[in-house]
């Protein structure tokens, strides 16, 4: 457990107040809890001799795998890109809070933007057939008697393009993806799981936001701890 001094707590509260004006879906107290969790993760990372100014890929990958149950390396890399808004290869505390607001409590529109960014592997603002094929190879299980899985995946890609490529240009733009998901929500994670399921979300929130009764009122008590 990470012990906080009065000075550190005051700094965290001030930081949370600033972030609460920018980030939706979390209360100021919840943001304080998330900042403390970020600090614990960063301290553990520094203890391993790693970067000290944010969460690196290795630390973030551990959170996605161990807490949120994401196992596909390609999707994990995509979620990292979605969080890492400035593209510096490190997730700072503001990116951590903003990313979690979408991952845990985001609206459908926010999740559409997140998933599209994950699936846009080369960040060129469109999803090409080759990208879809590459992602599906990582996501789909090979059947025991399947002679040519590549051909099966190509068939799935063609069916997907016919269904989602509304402007028929051979590419999935954000508008194509957005229109498709709004029409059929199940297409949100069509190319791989990049959002935690509700059970994982509940577990994380219970771990980080430990609700207690204080003086007869419901309030949150943040207890910095490792995510294990």
TrEMBL record:
Signal peptide extent: none
Keywords from the UniProt entry: Calcium, Metal-binding, Repeat
Keyword DNA-binding recorded: no
Matching InterPro entries: EF-hand-dom_pair, EF_Hand_1_Ca_BS, EF_hand_dom, Recoverin
Ranges where the EF-hand domain occurs: 71-106, 107-142, 152-187
SMART domains listed in its UniProt record: EFh (SM00054)
Organism of this sequence: Ilyodon furcidens (goldbreast splitfin)
Coiled-coil regions, chain positions: none
One Pfam family, short name: EF-hand_1
Name of the protein: EF-hand domain-containing protein
Keyword Calcium: yes
SUPFAM superfamilies named in the record: EF-hand
């Amino acid at each position: 457990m990470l012990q906080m001094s009065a000075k550190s707590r005051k700094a965290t509260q001030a930081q949370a107040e600033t972030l609460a004006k920018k980030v939706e879906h979390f209360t100021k107290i919840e943001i304080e809890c998330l900042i403390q969790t970020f600090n614990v993760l960063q301290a553990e990372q520094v203890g391993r001799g790693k970067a000290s100014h944010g969460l690196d890929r290795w630390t973030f990958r551990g959170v996605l795998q161990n807490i949120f149950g994401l196992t596909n390396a390609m999707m994990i890399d995509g979620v990292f890109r979605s969080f890492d808004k400035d593209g510096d290869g490190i997730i700072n505390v503001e990116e951590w809070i903003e990313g979690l607001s979408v991952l845990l409590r985001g609206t459908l529109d926010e999740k559409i933007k997140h998933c599209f960014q994950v699936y846009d592997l080369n960040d060129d603002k469109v999803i090409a057939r080759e990208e879809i094929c590459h992602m599906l190879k990582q996501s789909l299980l090979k059947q025991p008697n399947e002679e040519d899985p590549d051909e099966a995946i190509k068939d799935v890609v063609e069916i997907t393009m016919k269904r989602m490529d509304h402007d028929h240009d051979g590419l999935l733009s954000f508008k194509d993806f957005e229109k498709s998901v709004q029409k059929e929500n199940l297409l949100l994670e069509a190319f791989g799981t990049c959002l935690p399921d509700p059970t994982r979300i509940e577990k994380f929130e219970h771990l980080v936001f430990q609700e207690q009764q204080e003086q007869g009122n419901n309030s949150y008590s943040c207890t910095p701890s490792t995510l294990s």
